[in-house]
Every structure is written in structure tokens, then in C-alpha cells.
Amino acid sequence: MTERPDGGTAVKCSGCGITMQTTSPDLPGYIPEKLLTREPVICQRCFRIKNYNETSSVTVDQDEFLKLLSQIGDKDALVIHIVDIFDFEGSLISGLQRFVGSNPVVLAVNKTDLLPKVTNWNKVRNWVQKQAKEQGLRTEEIVLCSAKKNQGFDRLLDVVSELRGNRDVYVVGATNVGKSTLINRLIRDYSDMEQELTTSRYPGTTLDMVNIPLDDGKHIIDTPGIVYPWRFSEIVSRQDLSSIMPDKPLKPAAYQLDSGQTLFFGGMARFDFVDGQHQSFTCYINSGLKIHRTKLERADQLFADHAGELLSPPTRDQLAEMPEWTRHEFRVPRKSPSDIYISGLGWIRVNSENGALVAVHAPRGVRVLLRPALI
What we know:
By secondary structure, this protein is of the alpha/beta class.
């Protein structure tokens, strides 16, 4: 909690009501210390909305986020849940349905520009619908979109107009899924922010939610991005983020493997073909991460000798800061196209007609699972 320089009571943002702090720009309520004595005092996020008609992401941990979610079920609201198609299972909010109650949910599936251009979008939509249903999430609509390419956002805005009625709009999502881009678009389309924010305080004061007033008296509620520790993006260094997070369409890399062969994805993770007939595996990994093939019997020694050098990123020093690897084993059924998914790193499609026994080694805590093939 930040106090005034004169030792008085904590300073509250005149925009959203949050207690100000001067130490962490990425956390709620940040303001440069030299601005604390100005009037009115508003946090960095409110300043950006007021002056630039845009909002920036802030984050909270899971417990804090669940407290925020628990309030939505008591409201009359439309909920927009934004997920990342590249990291679908890692960015989907588990158990969202029990928090939102009977309120309608729109699932906005962002970063579709990362999928290969020849992708069958109807199949992707059906895949998303099935996966969401298995997670217990009931959706009024699924919208495939790309914030980067500004694709699908007109459709999303149409859906919001159709479903909103006399409701507030809550926007929820994990970090790095494109939530701020959507909020900014909603601001431009639904609210005269300059008029509203220069004359009045935001109505909301709950934690770091920001209530953005709409022209009809309702609000867009910008919730913080939840930090999920099982995503690769939360454990790598900032300089290595660009190596694992793609910024252009994925180029599938197919490998014909015999059992007893291994693929290293830089020094981030490894994939073992433990047992099965000679077959093809297709890697959907950022091209900035070099794939190295070797024999399974040599894999442990290769990693011990060359991690952080031949097998990089990360560097040896950065690798020492990451959790040790854990082994995950999967048996892929016959005639069952499947992905071995590594949260935040990508996936390996198993193309076999005959099944396979495979294993993945990844930092402890990173989510690794077997799922029906996305593509």
C-alpha cells in the first residue's frame, strides 16, 4: 500500500478507486511516484483510457482472480471469455461456468492468424466447441478472430450487440491472449470515453476491475488477466518469449521417426517416440525454436552436455532458473489422430494409423496432455 509522501492515508485512483502503488508497472494501481501529488490522481491504466482511448493489461494470481469471478454470477451480464488458439487448454478458464451462473458466455478464440493458411475453419470451430463442452463451458457463440490482423472482430461486435441487451459486458481471460485489444475496440465502438472520463469517476471500485461507461448507462468491465503458472510463457525469461511465442503462421514440420528417436525443441522440451511402427509426427512449434533429432538412447547425455548451447534457448544460466524437467508418457490409440500438447510451446500431431507410445519431457508444472488433433 502506498502512502502519501507526507505520511497521510493511502492514495486512491480517482478513476477506478484502486489503491495506488509506485513499484510495479505491470500490477494494478501503478503510478510514477512523481505524479502522486497531482490532482486528480489516476493510475496508469485509467490515464491510458482517458487520454488514448485504450487500456493495458494488468494481472492477478488465481486466488484473487477467482474472487473477482465469483461476483459475476450475481450480476446480469454478458461474459466474453478470450482464449488463445495456440495455447487453448492453457488459456481456458477452468470452471468458468460455475462462476458466471446463467449469464451468457461468448468464447472469443484469438490468434487464429497463427494457424496455417490452409486450415479448415469449420473443423477448428467444431473442435473448439467440443473441447469447451468437455470443460463444462456452455457458450452462446464461438467467434474465431485475430486481434493482430483485425479479423473476426466485426463479427464479435455483432454478437455482443445481439446478446448484450440491457446488460453490462465482462471481459475475462488469461495473460497474453489479446484481451486489451478487444477492450480497446469495444471502447471505440460503444463509448464516448473522452466525455465520460474527463467529467466523472468510473463507477467501479472493486480491486482492479475497471468499469468503462457505455453510452447507454451500462459498462464494459475490464477484469485483470489471470496468471496461469502451467504455461511456458510464465516461466521463460522475457528475452526467450519471442522464441516460443509465434508472431506469424506456424509452418508444420513433419518428421518420419522410428521408435527410439527423440526430438529436442531447443532446450525447452523434448519428445520421445518410445515404441511403435515407423511413422510421421508433425510439429506445430514456433520456427524460432530449432528442432534437433537424435537417438533416444543418447538423449539424456546430449542434454547434459549441450543444454543451453547446441540445445538452446534457453541459455545455461536461464535454464538454471527454470524448473527441472518432468517426464509425461502417453499411449496414442490406433486410428485416433491426436496432439501431444505442451502449454505455451505448441503441439506434436501423431499421424499414425497404428498407435504409438510417446513421452514428453518438460519443465515441472508445465501442462502436457493428449488431446484430439486440432488440425
